[in-house]
Amino acid sequence: MRALLVDRSAPAGLRLGRSPDPEPAPHQALIRVAATSFNYGEIRHVLENAPDGAVLGWDAAGVVERAAADGSGPAVGTPVTTLGHDGAWAEFRAVDTDLIGIAPAGADPGAISTIPVAGASALRALHRIGPLLGKRILVTGATGGVGRYAVQLARLGGAHVVAVTGNPEAHGDSLRALGAHEVIVGPGAVDAPVDGVVDLVGGRQLVDAYQALAERGTLVAVGHATDESEHFPGGAFFGDQGRHDRSIATFFLLACTGLAPDLTWLSALVSAGELDPQISWRGSWGKAAEAAEALLGRRLHGKAVLELDWSVAVATTE
């Protein structure tokens, strides 16, 4: 099959080539991929540590080519969005059926390919915080793919949404259009305690966001964009002065169960225009290096989508 392969000698460490077709396990469906979306974490961390020839990728959308042998999951021809540890950057992908979301007929594969990591991470983080109606929710790193979904979903859930971005002047209007009530430069700028935090940055911002939590508030640590350590000041975990029962929850999406219904629900909202996938770069997978370099350079705010264009020349692996 055709695939994007890890290649240290190629621009951004990726080249188009060929790889063996995946062999699905009984509980897996074979998906013909139409589009995939890049995530900063897989480009920044997974790609740099992967061996040459590997086929990576977490997010992919397409149609079911072969249904799971055990009878689980969607039927042949069903449009889907999928999540996995790897294998998304290829013509075919074998996916566990509990990581497959069914998309509406006619759904844009590029749009729904943004859902698995970004949309599902935002949704599960907000679920961990609890009921949102009337709550104040802080989202750090709000201009990224997960952050933009989190802002929209928190607003949809009835929360008062406070979005954090390093440049409110540049991104304030777009974040307010997604549902943010306030746009601030850092967690330390909040004007009142918050009931929950979706933290996508880590480091100092996580520490400051925890300090902004109200009694019984929860911070969910989803992303670690800064690669910085967290150093809490003395007394940060005292429970007096309105700080009783605050908590920090760690997060790993693929450890969550029951993701297929989440992916299906999110696909319906994106397809209906009720959620904006916030695609900021879209092009053929022949331009994968361009997308990866823009993502690493922090020149993209939102999602980068690659569409599998079979007219692009593909090299043969040795």
UniProtKB/TrEMBL annotation:
InterPro entries: ADH-like_N (IPR013154), ER (IPR020843), GroES-like_sf (IPR011032), Lipid_raft_assoc_Zn_ADH (IPR052585), NAD(P)-bd_dom_sf (IPR036291)
Highest taxon above the source species: Bacteria
Pfam families: ADH_N, ADH_zinc_N_2
Region annotation (Disordered) ranges: 1-25
Residue ranges annotated for the Enoyl reductase (ER) domain, each copy included: 9-306
SMART domains for this protein: PKS_ER (SM00829)
This protein's name: Zinc-binding dehydrogenase
